[in-house]
Design a protein that fits this description.
mainly alpha, transmembrane
Length: 55
Amino acid sequence: MDDSSLSSPVDVDKGFAIAFVVLLFLFLIVMIFRCVKLVKNPYEASLPTTEPSLS
């Protein structure tokens, strides 16, 4: 009985830490793909941002 109440907060903290690391990893993957797209073709990547201001 005492062990389950003691391990519960540790599991919650570990869950938050794992979720944070997973979200950080996904954000890093998305940023890597965006940067690769920008490096491969910088004019196409910047075209939608400049097009509305010209028209």
